Amino acid sequence: MPGPDIERVFRAEYGRAVSILVRVFGDIDIAEDAVQDAFARAAERWPADGLPPSPAGWIITTARNQAIDRLRREASRSDRHAQAALLHAGPEGGRSVAGGTGYGEEGPVRDDRLRLLFTCCHPSLSPAAQVALTLRLLGGLTTEQIAHAFLVPEPTMAQRPVRAKGKIRDARVPYRVPGEADLPGRLAAVLAVVYLIFNEGYTASTGDELTRPDLCAEAIRLGRLLATLMPDEAEVMGLLALMLLTESRRAARTAPDGSLVLLADQDRSRWDRGLIAEGQALVRRCLRRGHPGPYQIQAAINAVHSDTAPRRTPGATDWDQILQLYDQLLAVAPSLVVALNRAVAVAEVSGPAAALALVDELGAAPGPGTGPGLAGYYLFHAIRADLLRRLGRPADAAAAYDAALARTANAAEQAFLRHQRDQLSTPT
Amino acid sequence: MPQYLLSMYQPDGDPPPPEVLGPIMRKVSAWNQDLRDAGAWVFTAGLHPASTATVVRSQHGDVVMTDGPFAEGKEHLGGFTVISVPDLDAALEWGRRISEITTLPCEVWPLRMSDGG
User: Fold this and answer.
1) Distance (Å, whole) CA A368 – CA B27
2) Nearest-neighbour CA in chain A from B50: distance (Å)
3) Which partner from A94, A412, B31, B48 sits 20 to 30 angstroms from A301, CA to CA?
């Protein structure tokens, strides 16, 4: 009985417990060790004693008491680190969870998980470290799980949170929600980390499987948490809606053999209507706010796609509206990738010839910095190939499919591209 | 209170002409004064060009000297400031301001403090 119970409590409460303990002791390692100890103790006790009335409260109290006992032992051996942590915890030994942070002024929102999230996504940390730390401290994922999810060797992945925690400690990265002035920029970094986790789950960048559902579930869980903690931020709502609407198509996106199915060819009866309803409701709330941002507009585009009823054909998609939304997206968040996606909508509204002209123009544009531009991006070639196919230029299309194939390491995407290429009619 | 080393890195070669450098240096002075007014200033120094530096290495009892700075490159340490502020965000904000003034990158590096901070 308690095995799944502990697992469920762990998934739901690990991040909250760690974030509270970080505030109490001012130290991430102490907090992590204590919370892990508390769950180990729960695994011993709960099977015999049954689930406590408040499992989360039990974990937090147990972790706090264990940490204090351990720190007292270490402090008596004149361990200065332990002394500092006890001092941070205050005269009552950290029992006043509602107390101050000891780190100066409060942000506009008082929730420890939010503080921890902003600390994990601090701009002084590399994006890879931000992702690893967020999954570990707020999601409770082990190094092994994170390494597996990102197909990074475990020793490499193990280094990231260790280094990041060392930097947070030594450079004194503050444990707080940024003030109003810094909030937009800092929140954008947090949203980027959550969306990065989601995207890596939705289209695994390498490996045999197209998706890694665990990462998507974790990103959506973080998105829901953010939406609860920052209900006034329209972009937070937009990101959650975008993830829910994208996730709603997961089952329809892969064929039984694991290969990729394009949006236009998907069996719409396999879309998750519950997720679509939730995502569309969020999009409508965003629209009422009237502060559009990149995530909200992308969510709106996905909401239009989802509008197509189960038994209606893809032709029923309102491409005019999608194109308008892409125009809006390009205005608020101009990028070559957005322009490329817009070209796909142009193909539906004005035909493949107009779209191909746009795509070729984009392909000639230089990338950001010294980057390779769109020519290094597999989707650029895949989209070009599809447009060339529709224009009746199979030889050119085949070459473009080959170019796309050379630029993705995902086996499901490769299989799809090969299939498309082999379907081309041989030129006479 | 934690302390941070703020290092300014500048390209080697001639400094900008006086009409460009003058206004920048006035703003740098104002930044220094702001640091003092905020009680955050600890120490500041500007350096002569990297070509004036010498690296001294003691090897097996011999001393080997090398003309020039330790790190090869097109940019070198031009000056540094030590500040004392509550946390990294505060240090990064002072770094952001000086980088904006000088248009040079500023490296923010926490000092290892003897009191365990």
Assistant:
1) 32
2) 28
3) A412
* B86·A172 Cβ contact <8 A: yes
Nearest to B110 among A80, A81, A170 (CB): A170
Please check the confidence at residue A284 and state whether its pLDDT lies above 90. Answer: yes
Residue A216: partners with Cβ closer than 8 Å, 6 or more residues away: A198, A201, A202, A243, A247, A250
Tens-digit pLDDT profile for residues A87-138: 888 755 444 444 433 333 333 445 898 899 999 999 999 998 999 999 999 9
In angstroms, the CA A141 to CA A143 distance is 7
Chain mean position to CA A146 = 13
For testing contact with chain B, the best of A170, A173, A186 (most B CBs within 10 A): A170
Cα–chain-centroid distance for residue A108? 24
Q: In sequence order, which residues have a C-beta less than 8 Å from that of residue A202 and are 6 or more positions away?
A: A211, A216, A246, A247, A250
State the Cα–Cα distance between residues A217 and A275, nearest whole angstrom.
12
- The 10s digit of each residue's pLDDT in A30-62 is 999 999 999 999 999 999 999 999 999 999 999
Lowest mean pLDDT among A368-382, B1-15, B36-50: A368-382
Q: Are A83 and A75 in contact (CB under 8 A)?
A: yes
Q: Which residues contact B20 (CB under 8 A, 6 or more apart)?
A: none
Cα–Cα distance measured from residue A250 to residue A210, given in angstroms and rounded to the nearest whole number: 10
Contact A270, A247 (CB under 8 A): no
Q: Residue B71 to residues A298, A413, B5, B7, B74: CA-CA distances in angstroms?
A: 46, 45, 18, 14, 10
Cβ contact A238:A299 at 8 Å: yes
Nearest of A276, A120, A270 to residue A190 by alpha carbon: A120
ipTM of the complex, rounded to two decimals: 0.88
pLDDT value at A371 more than 70: no
pLDDT tens by residue, B47-71: 999 989 999 999 888 999 999 999 8
The mean pLDDT value for A290-308 works out to 92
Mutate to test the interface with A, among B85, B89, B92 (most CBs of A within 10 A): B89
Collect all residues with Cβ–Cβ distance below 8 Å to B3 and sequence separation of at least 6.
Answer: B42, B82, B83, B84, B110, B111, B113
| B87 with A103: Cβ contact below 8 A | yes
Residue A326 has pLDDT above 50, yes or no: yes
